Amino acid sequence: MNVKTDTKEKFTVITPFEENLSVNMTGELGQMLLTYLQKDIPHVVLNLSQVKTMDDKIGEILAETQQKFYENDCSFVICNLQPGVEASLDKQELLEIMNVTPTESEAWDIVQMEEIERELLGGAE
């Protein structure tokens, strides 16, 4: 899978350069994303601006991956959904449970807000 990664101070932006994310990419995508949980900067923004369609299994993998990130106190935000991808996730009723923003800038804001929230909640224990 052809992807661009851009590591920022607090998170990494991953942009797949595939028009279609097909079912045969599920294992590769899931493994690639989960490796970020072991990195110094574990928070991920997945920019889907180049992806026009995706198989249903990819949507399931993204929802599961997001859950694993949150279980590990890490952020996982998806941004720039194209209409076909948004329709696919909506049909699967995954949009309601996923952290999705219209733009990459808004995704950055979510990551930063979640980091502040984790710091505040961590300090209250």
Characteristic terms for this protein:
125 residues; Transcription Regulator spoIIAA; 7 strands
How much β-strand is present in the residues?
Answer: 15-25%
Secondary-structure element series? EEEHEEHEHEH
Q: Residue-averaged pLDDT, rounded?
A: 93
The Cα radius of gyration reads 14 Å
Largest sheet: 5 strands, mixed
- The CATH superfamily turns out to be STAS domain
Count up the helices: 4
Low-confidence stretches: none
At the fold tier of CATH, the topology name is: Transcription Regulator spoIIAA
Category from helices, strands and their pairing:
alpha/beta
Characterization of the model:
By secondary structure, this protein is α/β, with parallel strands linked by helices. It has one domain (3-124): Transcription Regulator spoIIAA (2-Layer Sandwich). Helices cover 44% and strands 19% of the residues. It is built from 4 helices and 7 strands. The chain has helices at 26-34, 56-71, 83-91, 104-124; strands at residues 3-7, 12-16, 20-21, 44-47, 53-54, 76-79, 100-101. The chain has a 5-stranded mixed beta sheet with strand order 1-2-4-6-7. A two-stranded parallel ribbon has the order 3-5. Strand 1 (3-7) and strand 2 form a beta hairpin. The longest helix is centred in the C-terminal third of the chain and has 21 residues, at 104-124. The radius of gyration is 14 Å and the shape is globular. The termini are far apart. The mean pLDDT is 93.
